[in-house]
Design a protein that fits this description.
By secondary structure, the chain is α+β, with helices and mostly antiparallel strands. It has helices at about 1-20, 50-60, 145-150, and strands spanning about 65-70, 80-85, 90-100, 105-110, 115-120, 125, 155-160, 170-175, 190-195, 200-205, 205-210, 215, 230. It is built from three helices and 13 strands. The N and C termini lie far apart (about 135 Å).
Length: about 240
């Protein structure tokens, strides 16, 4: 009899063990957890920094003639001309760009050299090295070194979308330094670009520029508007009054 009881108990015990282990196990994968937010890829083309870099990269390759209305506090409105020739030379005409607004100038880069020219046809001074800050209207940086800063992902720039400036087409970007103690090598402010890289407006330290009309075709090259003369570039500020 004891053998019969043992034979009856063993199957019952096995069934109990199987029922205890055969249910759906609770695992980490089946427990409800909040999914972590995926970080935004640094080169996400939908992010403002990437969109601005793409437009600045396109701007590097533009060759055109564009005119801008320049508004500066305390000065009458002026029309600035920016010409970028197919051979890489360029010219920026700034009415009232020297001597406190009394002298019209053009900055011309041609033949691998930069010149400041007094308009009309009053001679061009060759600039050795960088243009002195005292003579720098800053507008030429919009088509030269600042484009390199905008495309450099290592620069400490904080970029966000901005409300369009009045009269500006395309998209506008607000630029600030992402490091409080770091001075970035361009003007902070608002830059507006079309997808093809055309600058349509900018609000910067020297004033607000807005594209006036559709840009024209680029010339093949740019010549100096006057003879090369000896001297130093004229400063932005008016000369002191004679005592």
């Amino acid at each position: 009899m004891s053998g019969v009881r043992l034979l009856l108990v063993l199957p019952l015990l096995g069934a109990l063990l199987l029922s205890g282990c055969g249910g759906n196990p609770v695992t980490a994968s089946s427990s409800p957890t909040a999914s972590a937010a995926s970080p935004v890829p640094p080169n996400d083309p939908t992010q403002p920094r990437s969109k601005l870099a793409a437009r600045a990269a396109a701007a590097k390759d533009l060759r055109q003639v564009a005119h801008y209305l320049l508004k500066t506090s305390g000065r009458p409105d002026r029309t600035v001309a920016i010409t970028r020739a197919t051979d890489g030379s360029w010219r920026v005409d700034v009415p009232g760009g020297a001597h406190g607004g009394a002298v019209d100038i053009a900055l011309v880069f041609t033949g691998g050299a930069l010149h400041q020219c007094v308009l009309p046809n009053q001679g061009c001074v060759h600039i050795d090295g960088p243009l002195p800050k005292t003579a720098d209207p800053k507008i030429e940086h919009l088509i030269t070194d600042w484009l390199g800063v905008l495309t450099d992902r290592q620069q400490a720039l904080a970029v966000s979308m901005a409300q369009p400036l009045e009269g500006a087409a395309g998209e506008c970007f607000a630029i600030e330094s992402s490091a409080v103690s770091l001075q970035i090598p361009l003007d902070v402010g608002i830059y507006c670009y079309e997808r093809d890289g055309t600058l349509t407006a900018a609000k910067l330290s020297f004033g607000t520029m807005v594209l006036a009309g559709k840009p024209g075709a680029a010339p093949p090259s740019i010549a100096l508007p006057g003879p090369v003369v000896k001297g130093t570039p004229l400063p932005l500020a008016a000369p002191p009054s004679p005592s």
